[in-house]
Amino acid sequence: LFLTLYQLNITEVRRAFREDTPVRWISAFLIFLAIPLLVVEGGQSINFIFTGKEPEAPSLIFALDLSFVVPGMLLAAVLLWQRRAWGYVLAAMMLVKGITYGLVLVINTAIITAKGLAPLDPLMPFYIFVAVGSLIFCWILLRSLNHIRTSELK
Questions:
Q1: DSSP-based three-state secondary structure for 105
Q2: What does the longest C-alpha to C-alpha distance in the chain come to?
Q3: Predicted model pTM
Q4: What is the rounded distance in angstroms from the CA atom of residue 103 to the CA atom of residue 72?
Q5: 42-66: per-residue pLDDT in tens?
Q6: How many Å apart are CA 42 and CA 151, to the nearest integer?
Q7: What is the 3-state composition of the chain as percent helix, strand, coil, each rounded to the nearest 5?
Q8: Cβ-proximal residues to 64 (8 Å cutoff; 6+ apart), any chain
Q9: Beta bridge partners of 17
């Protein structure tokens, strides 16, 4: 992945997208996903610092979300809003992350509930929203690609 990104002709990536790409809608969606994670998980982390009360979710989830997912989504949203080339790349990456992240949460929640290991997670509608919304906005973003040869991007 890193070698591919390093070799990417970023100028051509920007040109590969049509001018009518709805970057503001896609950016708003990414922000809408990042803010709840930041508020809920950041708030629980700050609460832990001051009270010692451990968050409900495992600390690894918080560490990944607050160090990669939230900053990645916010950076993608800002760069895409400004129609910068890296915004298109990061937005696509973060939307794919949203699809997979949402699907994992939906499927695992359904399995845990079906086996009677826990009641239905009240966040299940949000998980579905993340997966379906990311899929829709990823499709919208990629649909805005012009027909290009992959050799132009290297």
A1: helix
A2: 56
A3: 0.87
A4: 19
A5: 999 999 999 999 888 888 888 999 9
A6: 42
A7: 75, 0, 20
A8: none
A9: 145
Determine the Cα–Cα distance for residues 88 and 91; give it in Å rounded to an integer: 5
Q: Token pair of 32, please?
A: 């809408």
**Nearest to 26, CA basis, from 71, 70, 69, 90:** 90
d(CA 132, CA 149) in angstroms, rounded, equals: 29
* Burial label, 122 (beta-carbon count in 10 A; 0-12, 13-18, 19+): exposed
Query: How is residue 59 written in tokens?
Result: 């600390």
Q: How do residues 79-101 score in pLDDT, each as one tens digit?
A: 999 999 999 999 999 999 999 99
Q: Are 12 and 148 in contact (CB under 8 A)?
A: yes
Amino acid at 131: A
Q: Which ranges of the chain would DSSP assign to H, the alpha helix?
A: 2-7, 10-16, 23-51, 59-64, 70-81, 85-114, 124-143
Q: Residues near 77 by Cβ (< 8 Å), separated by ≥ 6? A: 26, 27, 28, 30, 31, 34, 87, 91
SS3 label, residue 76? helix
**Any bridge partners for residue 145, and if so which?**
17
The one-letter code for the residue type at 73 is: M
